[in-house]
Design a protein that fits this description.
The protein has 3 helices and 4 strands, in the order αββαββα. It has 124 residues and is α+β, with helices and mostly antiparallel strands. The chain has a 4-stranded antiparallel beta sheet, covered by helices on one side.
Length: 124
């Protein structure tokens, strides 16, 4: 597990610095299964978590929601039957901040130690 899970999100204000390419290059290997994408000129982290049914997907979504409230940083979440797609980026600065990497790692940690029949970590 990465040391990112031990960090707390810092307040991100308009004008806060975006993660540099060097930071991105250092942080991406600490995440498992996350992709770096760019949508509308904004870099984001995205990952789809797979589940056996809708109930498990919804439970995971709720746990991500609670974590997000605790940290004061919120993702884009798409919950569907058998899967949840999360996208992290910092809306105020229109790009990636270290907070997004922290939250991606913490999202993964929600499901550590438990896998569904598809072999994907799930939160219970």
């Amino acid at each position: 597990m990465s040391n990112l899970t031990g960090k707390t999100c810092e307040v991100c204000r308009i004008g806060a610095p975006l993660a540099t390419q060097q930071e991105i290059d250092e942080l991406m290997p600490q995440l498992q299964g996350w992709e770096l994408i760019e949508t509308d000129g904004i870099k984001r982290l995205i990952k789809t978590f797979r589940f056996d049914n809708f109930e498990e997907a919804l439970s995971f979504t709720n746990k991500v929601g609670l974590l997000s409230e605790q940290e004061g940083h919120h993702p884009s979440i798409l919950t569907e039957w058998g899967k949840v797609t999360l996208s992290w980026w910092s809306h105020k600065i229109k790009g990636l901040h270290v907070n997004d990497f922290v939250m991606a790692a913490k999202t993964d940690a929600l499901g550590m130690g438990k896998e569904n029949s598809l072999g994907t970590p799930v939160a219970r």
